[in-house]
Amino acid sequence: MFRAYLPPFIIAALISGGLTYYIKTLAEKFKIVDQPSPRKIHPKPTPRLGGLAIVAAFLIVLIGYTLASHRLEFSGLHLWFLDKRLVGVILGLIVLMIIGILDDIRGMKPWSKLFWHIIAAGTVVAFGMTISYLRLPFGLHLDLTNLSIPFTLFNTTYTIVLWGDLVAIFWIVLLINTLNFLDGLDGLASGIAVITGAVVFFLALSLGQDSNALLAVLIAGVAFGFLPWNFNPARIFMGDTGSMTLGYLLGVLSIISGGKLATAFLVLGIPLLDVGWVFLRRIFSGRSPFQADKRHLHHRLLTAGFTQRQAVIVLYIIATIFGIVAVLAGTSQKIQAVVALLILMIIFAIALVILEYRKKRREAHEEVL
To answer: Does any domain span residue 337?
Structure first.
């Protein structure tokens, strides 16, 4: 069974890696590079727009496998030759691709980008993707379908599930921004995307969800194909085009055929908690929550004395461990794992503060000598 998914993974990775080479060549030719600055950690100009290769590769393999196998079926309804939900995914992805390219080339204001993030996520929801309920501790379920509005369009009845739709939009926008903020170290965002895709693949496979498993393989494949180009020392950056795309696709993957929010939260738990902490810290200090700085967890690892590769591998390991727990555990165990994740985040933060303090004392002592 597992072998049937290996060819699409390899094909997605090869297309992504090949397109990355050509995008890198074009970016160098037209001087579309990311310049070093005090806020950034790369020492020399590095080509960007690598995310365009991720988007293009994903669209190629998605449409190709839909035409070749008709295995990507989620809603039972079709527009043209694609599943209706996939049409929404593609349209939202195109919105993000355009915004990402504009931002990578000339820059965009954070609130403008957030508006388009909501538009992209709303497009997905408009084509039938929603979250019907949330599993809570102690076996409780929160029904999100109580507030709904039915309407008819082209002789087809649709239902807007307001609470579920709003939660779905929030979740997708949250993951778009989480992966965007995570893209601060070479290979971090793309590697975490590979791990998340792999975890959802094994979970979907265990549940007999072939379409979800195949979609997970394609997402993991395009991220994996880009990773060798992006791992430290990076030869090309994915830019906002890539990080927003990967966050968007992971958000979609976790809800397209049944909620896997707990699973995705466990794998992405450290980055998600880090985003929440950084947002709160910026707001309480009177700054915009989107004002960039070097106080994210991965930056703190560098400050504590880790190299880029060491910091990235540590975060890979944490994501993998909680991913394994997500696949093997039941619902109640996943909730317990989320609590463990919160405790780990607190311990992690305390350990980093201690390491930073010791490093500063050591450097001050060396200056005196």
So the answer is: no
Q: Judge whether 156 and 108 are in contact, CB under 8 Å.
A: no
Query: Using an 8 Å Cβ cutoff, are 235 and 257 in contact?
Result: no
Task: Please tell me whether residue 135 adopts helix, strand or coil conformation.
Answer: strand
pLDDT tens per residue, range 261-295? 778 888 887 788 777 777 777 776 777 666 666 66
Sequence-separated contacts (24+) of 278-285 with Cβ below 8 Å: 278/181
Give the Cα separation of 28 and 162 in Å (integer): 46
Residue type, 227: L
Residue 369 lies in a domain: no
Residue 317 lies in a domain: no
Task: Show the tokens assigned to 225.
Answer: 């194909």
Domain around 15: 2-259
How far apart (Å, rounded) are the C-alpha atoms in residues 55 and 166?
25
HSE of 53, CA atoms in CB hemisphere, 13 A: 34
Indicate whether 212 belongs to any domain: yes
Q: Which of 173, 51, 41, 40 is nearest to 102 (CA)?
A: 51
For residues 50 and 256, the answer to whether their CB atoms sit within 8 Å is no
What does pLDDT average to in each consecutive run of 10 residues of the chain (369 residues)?
A: 86 97 92 76 82 96 87 81 91 95 87 94 90 64 63 62 81 93 89 94 89 94 96 92 95 82 81 76 70 68 82 89 80 70 76 74 65
- Give, as one character, the DSSP assignment of residue 82: E
User: What tokens does 151 get?
Assistant: 């309407």
Q: How far is C-alpha 13 from the chain's CA centre?
A: 17
Place of tokens 């915009």: 288
Q: Residue 157 burial by CB count (10 A; 0-12/13-18/19+): exposed, middle or buried?
A: exposed
**Count of the separate structural domains present in the chain:** 1
